[in-house]
Write a structure and sequence with these properties.
By secondary structure, this protein is mainly beta. Helix content is 12%, strand content 37%. It binds manganese (II) ion (MN).
Amino acid sequence: MFVVMSDSHYDRNVVESIKKKYQASATAIFHCGDSELLSSDEIWNGITVVAGNCDYDNGYQDFILQEVEGKKVLITHGHLFYVGLGLDRYSYFAEEKGADIALFGHIHRPVAQKINGVLYLNPGSVAQPRGEYDVKMYATIEITDRQYKISYRNLQHEPISELQFIL
Ligand SMILES: [Mn+2]
């Protein structure tokens, strides 16, 4: 099981609480950018994090490809691929990189869908949710045999019932 969060926008405590909850049990913890924290912050020990459009610290990378539980996981914020307009550009990039799972943030809304066998996942925002679901949230992904079990959770770490998926 691994954990994905995004767009914490200067709320360091929420990143820390999710890290504490999962650091012993998760195979990886990802943050898709717009943390607005320093890239040298010790909180990033044990978290894979990328640059968002609101991150002015140039110590962050635009994207990272990391193998987790035998899957190639691509992580980027999404603004460079205009994810607000859809996943066309990001999907070209993810397929070129050979990703199995492509994570992104930026839009502050939950997205979980498969395109050409690649799982695209936006965990929503842990600080500033937008759109249909006005809940601060993050996501956990369990990799089972040929399937992904995706659970969006609120900041009390409880599953959000409308946002549970098997893809
Ligand atoms: Mn943001």
